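Risk register update: the risk that structure generation would not scale has been downgraded. Supporting records follow, first protein first.
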Amino acid sequence: MALCFDAPMQSWGVDSRFVVRDTATEPTKSGVVGLLAAALGIQRNDDDSIADLARLRLGIRADREGIIERDYHTTQNVPNTEGRGHRTVISNRYYLADALFLVVLEGDAALLRRLHAAVQRPRWPLFFGRKAFVPARPLVTPAGKEKTEAPTAVGLVERSVDEVLRQHPWLEIREDLRRQEVRKLDAGQPTADLRVLTDCKSSHTGAEPRRDHPISFAQGNRRFATRSVVTSHVPLTTELIQSGEPTCS
């Protein structure tokens, strides 16, 4: 299943502490699982259902790399550790601006079918890391929408994560950027390489650890395990740059 993560702002925290809230440069597995859990209406303390979602293999393609920006926040009247007195707390919160990702999931077919329906009619609101960071367009092609223009999304097909990441049409909808890459191809110049991250075994050559595999989202008992990912690149080709508005389904 292919999802489109497009928004003016996204935030994918990995190691946020106290007054510094960081963001990864792409969606984390915990962030993706959290979004899917919201779509299905899964409670935070339902560890078994969270585990089912976390078992899905995840692949991410950065169709437009975001720019890391920082928000400067002040919070007034914060009580001290003794509960007495109040102070003003300053915090720095980082986020990705203008980022666009193709998010691909592979695994249990029945679960993927449920998720495909749920992201079109989610039980709870969907957002990208923070409640204010909502999607700029549907995650998948809306049900009943006519697919009259290419490229269309991959949809629910029997393909591996790796195949979908290599073959799915480029999600970029800015015509100036699309024309720019087409001109490069016509002139025989190198085009952009799209950064790709996929789940892999820890023994895989080039595997990198990421501590964002969710075990529990329970309030006061959030727990995560380490997973392994491998980074690669997909060249932007004529086949990926097609006419029409790219969507996911």
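Supporting record for the second protein:
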Amino acid sequence: MTAAASDPPRIAQLSKYRIESMLGAGAMGIVYRAFDPVIERHVALKTVRHELFESGERHSLMARLRNEAQAAGRLAHPHIVAVYDYGETADTAWIAMELVSGQGLKPRLDAGRALELATALDWFAQLLAALGFAHEHGVVHRDIKPANLLVSAQGRLKVADFGVAHVESSTLTLSGAMIGTPSYMSPEQFTGDPVDGRSDLFSAAIVLYQMLTGCRPFAGASQAEVMRQVMHDTPRTPSACNPALPPACDDVLMRALSRRPDARYQTAHALWRALDDAMRGAQPAAPLATDDDRTLLEAQPMTPAAPLASGTGSWRGDSLPSLTMWPGAMLAPVETRLAAQIGPVARLLVRRAAARIADAPDLSALIALLAPHIPSDKGRAEFIAAFADGSGAGTSRGPTLCSSLDAQEVQAAALRLAAYLGPIANIVAKREASRAASLRVLHERLAAAISNEADRARFERDVGL
């Protein structure tokens, strides 16, 4: 859950957790910011409302909360909010989960404006990576919507709230019930038919449609009207709502929003591959001096004064003066390898990342900024490994060592760590390398620098601890 403290807490302690503030309240319960004194970390503590707990719904509420803990607890993934603990008391039940520093996607989309194409595709790739992982582990979320999608301060999207998820081994019986949020529900959810991962992909396609156009494809004034539209109407094509979009998006999204599950993309990977292929086909043959949303009023030659958009960090223009610090031979192979993983949007992402650290061009820092954009674990590992020794971009800028460790091994470890810590990983690796007597000790020290348990476990697995 997102860390955005608001009202004072109504309770001071729950089990071992010290309550610090209230993050938010919903129909089912209250979410608190809390502190675990045993391992000294902050968590989001999700509880059931006391009045609901006492209203005769105790059994079903506890079953739903346990279901969320069971569903999310079995999914250790960088784009899924981690669940740490579950407990019950005489008058409530609670889940301790990862505290995400950032904000929800819903406020951004409620503004009714389309997101930048690169941002929307980046977050959608991360959403599909999370859903693909969940589906492979027998979990269907069943309530994918912007309110359940959190964006961390580092720009990483995380899926939250598995309270109505279906788990293959779950004892929570919801057969025939209409579960979900109407504007994002699949047709089979409205009819109460059995759902599988294709239902989540339908909901995810609605989220992408909204990110790209600023509006929802099904937006009736009542639940009944929304249901009628989902069951019978064909929404407008995305490019009809936002002419700046490449028409190649239309076919992919309209298929993803098919009423029949067997007419949709059958897996998260298949949906992303289709969208990636469509965007590759939409890539112009020659570079265009235009911005992220493809709005070009008049083609002007770029001048040395061309700025970055203030406060956004987003790239404007094809030839920023700050990029002149980067050797051309360094950026080209990075873009090529990233494009092989995520498609033509790689060109924009590479230049945006390069501009962010243009004052001190560093290959390792650049790879650290780009690696999280790759949704596939295997693809991300291959991308990092390609530049582990600096040869992938024609240069080596690894940390300077004052130890007996091999420089290339340390740089490889720093790049792996960068997927979780960002560019600061180089500093951490350099510092710990000077203190480590062996590569294994270095890996252990670097793992300890990762605060998120799930991420730390993935790093340890990656380096063979």
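The first strand starts at residue 13 and ends at 14. On this basis the risk owner (M.S.) recommends closing the item.
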